[in-house]
Amino acid sequence: MRILLAVLLAATLGIAAPARAQWKTVDTPTIKGAYGLVVIPEDWNGSLFIYAHGYSADERLLRPFPSDVSPANFTARLDTLFQASVLPAIVGKYAIATTTFRSEGWYVADAVKDIENLRRYFVKTYGKPKHTYLWGHSGGGMVTSTVIEYFPHTYEGAMPLCGTGAGARRNFDGAFDLRVAWEYVCKDVPGATFTCGICSGGSERCTVDADCGTGRTCSGREDPPDPADGLSRECTEFLLDHPDRFNENPTSPGGGFVEGPVHACFGDDAAGQARLQRFVALTQIPASFVVTDMFFASIGMGEVVHRRTHGKHPWGNDGVTYAPPGFSAAEQAAFNAAAYRSKSDPGAVRYMRRWYEPRGRTQSKVLTIHALDDGLVIPENETKYREAFEASGRTDQLVQLFTPTGGHCGFIAQLLPAITYITDWVEKGVKPDAAAIAQTSGFTSQTPGPMGLKVVERRQKGAPIGSYVCDAGVPSDCPAGTTCDGKRHRCR
Question: Domains of the chain, with CATH numbers?
Answer without folding.
Answer: 2-168+357-437 (3.40.50.1820), 170-351 (no CATH)
